[in-house]
Amino acid sequence: MDAVLNYLARHETRFVDELCHYVRFRSVSAQPEHRADMTADEIVAMEELAFAGVTSIIFVFLLLAFGEFHFLPPLALGALAGMTPGYLVHQKAIERRIRINRQLPFALDLLILSMEAGSAFLESIEILVSSNPTSPLAQEFYLVLQSIQHGRTRRVALEEMDVRVDSEDLRPVVHGINTGEELGTPIGSVLRVQAEGIRMKRSQRAEKLAAEASSKILFPTLLIMVAVLLMLMGPVIIKGVRDGWF
Fold first, then answer.
1. Are 19 and 44 within 8 A, CB to CB?
2. Tell me: the pLDDT tens digits for 93-143?
3. How many CA atoms lie within 13 A of 41 on its CB side?
4. How confident is residue 11, by pLDDT bands cut at 50, 70 and 90?
5. By the 8 A CB rule, do 176 and 193 touch?
6. What's the CATH number of domain 96-209, 1.10.10, 1.20.81, 2.30.30, 3.90.320?
7. 1 burial class (0-12, 13-18, 19+ CB within 10 angstroms)?
8. Contact 48, 82 (CB under 8 A)
9. CA atoms of 25 and 29, how far apart (whole Å)
10. Domain spans in the chain, listed from the N-terminal domain onward
């Protein structure tokens, strides 16, 4: 028994820490005024409160309505309510990542044009941020500028942005910029290659979805054809059965 108590004492906060790490969803907002909206601990607390509150309310309601103890429905509805806050935050993060992926090729084109016009890389980022301050990608690059101004290197600031966004399209761009800086390759050339690669990947993704759509639509089409045949042939079959044709 002492060994069990010692184990629980050593790992008292382990499961809560792991749960907090699980709900640290990627970069829901990069706006400075939203940084302190909710922490992972507060999201976990909201989930626990929702679970306990809904479970208690449903349990009391069933007890008063039917006069019996029902454990499964309150627990199931409570678990559903407990997962709702994290699910909503997760969906917001996914929607924001999709917007960033859509804006990325156009942002790279703007960076390339700015650098070809004589601007440095950081000046090009400032132009990108000022062109559309409300876009998620511009907000992320704004944080990159803030990090650099506070003493971080450009490489570290870009890698932090990559970790925050967690985008498959943005990661090669960050890696290409950092590699180009190490090798002395012009950043404009690197960005041009990355923009072309993103557009090619997007075209391949669209072709793949178009190819999959034809196979996915086959089963609903067969169901519609069967329904139409039944509507057309149903009265004939019924009349034939009544008149003894079969």
1. yes
2. 888 888 988 888 888 888 888 888 888 888 888 998 888 888 888 889 998
3. 3
4. low
5. yes
6. 1.20.81
7. exposed
8. yes
9. 10
10. 2-95, 96-209
